[in-house]
Give the backbone structure.
Amino acid sequence: MRELIIGGPTITVSHIETEATEYGDIQRYRIDVTGSDAVTHLSSLRSSPNVDARVMASVIDTELLLGYEGSRESGLLRDPGIRAWRDQHRPLIEQALDRLRDEMKDLPPEPVSNVERLLLRAFDMNGDDEVRDA
């Protein structure tokens, strides 16, 4: 579990399960924000269940900042209080995201699956250059 306080509310991310698949382990996380009943989940294809800076950055980026279509019907942003907090504290949220990205630079590279490596090569990116097998 990891918590991050931004402008008052605490964002809590907890690992809830690991699902082994033919493509690798899928880690599932639960995201809560204090003062809200809205809960959302994040799934990530990664070997480690740790709630590290990568997971936290993904949570903030996808669940709070993107505001993708449909986010008002599901996830954290269905709560109008969280949307108002996000809009009021966007600079603080972006600063927290920048700090997490800086922290990510010190983390060891994530191993990639064969499927991810094929996708990287399909888009002219060499998966072996940026990420090494475990």
User: Anything to note?
Assistant: The longest strand covers residues 10-21. Confidence is low (pLDDT under 50) at residues 129-134. The longest helix spans residues 90-104.
